[in-house]
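Aim 2 progress update. The chain analyzed this quarter is reproduced below.
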Amino acid sequence: MKKTLDQIRAAVAIQTKDEILRSQGGSDKSKSFPTMVQTNGLLGALAFAIDKKTSRSEAAFYSIASAVVAHLNEVRKQDKSIMTEDIQDPECLAKYLAKTSTPTQFRRITAECLAFLNYLRRFVS
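Predicted structure tokens:
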């Protein structure tokens, strides 16, 4: 059964919302991650999340990036043109975007990421 992108976004957001960590001070990073993507680009935001995954206080960014990966893999199940392969984690997504994706795919993945983060933010808050 085919689903709309909104259905997929909401389903993955609901499924991953409990896995999203908060920062050490209890701050909800799901609100700042989309701004980071808009300001620094998806690759920049992923690089930050990957770098911070070892810091207990900022592991929240990595958990959000992991939710993005889960979402993109779900979208790919219905539309293989978004990515040519399944992605395992944020590091693999960053490598895919830097080396394999076409400019069209890169823009589409970024747009889909931002649309998904809009749902995730609402369900996590």
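The chain has a mean pLDDT of 89. Residues 39 and 45 are 9 Å apart (CA to CA). These observations will guide the mutagenesis experiments scheduled for the next reporting period.
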